[in-house]
Amino acid sequence: MKCYNRCMFKKMDPVEIRKHKGKSFVGVATAVAIFNQQGQLLLARRSENCRDEHGKWDICGGGLKAGNTIDANLRSEMKEEFDIDSEQILHQVGVHEAFRIDHNNDSTHWLSLDHVIILTEEEVKRVKINEPENFTDIGWFNLDKLPTPLHSQLNDQRLKKIKLKFSEIKI
């Protein structure tokens, strides 16, 4: 009996995989709504270098890397994007499913594993743009006064779930 896994399949190049995420197979992402102790949400404005949604405000997140746990992936994204090292609890919000048309006019399908975290005051003081090629601005915003334009996937339904999860957490 032949072993097809070892004989027929080789690990794909990560650059090639990235081109197919959400197109050839459902893409899986992790996202985290980062709050300060006053209940303000951290948002970042996407630069022209981002794949899409240029100039739009978004929460922290990125594709789930093979071999990473969800927790490790979220903490890695927070560190990469905003230099956040936090041991605070990541509270699961749920799954956000997105069907979109990308910048190449291709249909895409993504699942985002959404979470909320509340930083300590000391952690908030250290937050900064750590990927200036991807973000032009960041800010802390009250949930009733979010900036515009927001990322298309940061819609009312998703924001409602984030707000509900935040309200359930004891600061």
Order of H and E elements = HHEEEEHEEHEH
Structural class: alpha+beta
CA(first)-CA(last) distance: 58 Å
Inertia-based shape: globular
Task: Please give the share of residues in helix.
Answer: 25-40%
Total number of β-strand segments? 7
Work out the strand percent: 25-35%
Our count of helices gives: 5
Q: What Rg do the Cα atoms give? A: 17 Å
Low-confidence segments? none
Mean pLDDT: 93
Largest sheet: 4 strands, mixed
Structure explained in plain terms:
This protein is an alpha+beta fold and 171 residues long. The protein is built from five helices and seven strands, in the order ααββββαββαβα. It has helices spanning 4-8, 14-20, 70-82, 121-125, 156-168, and strands at 27-35, 41-46, 57-58, 60-63, 91-101, 107-118, 135-141. The strands form two sheets. Strands 4-1-6-5 form a four-stranded mixed β-sheet, with helices on both faces. It has a three-stranded antiparallel β-sheet with strand order 3-2-7, with no helix packed on it. It is globular and about 50 Å long.
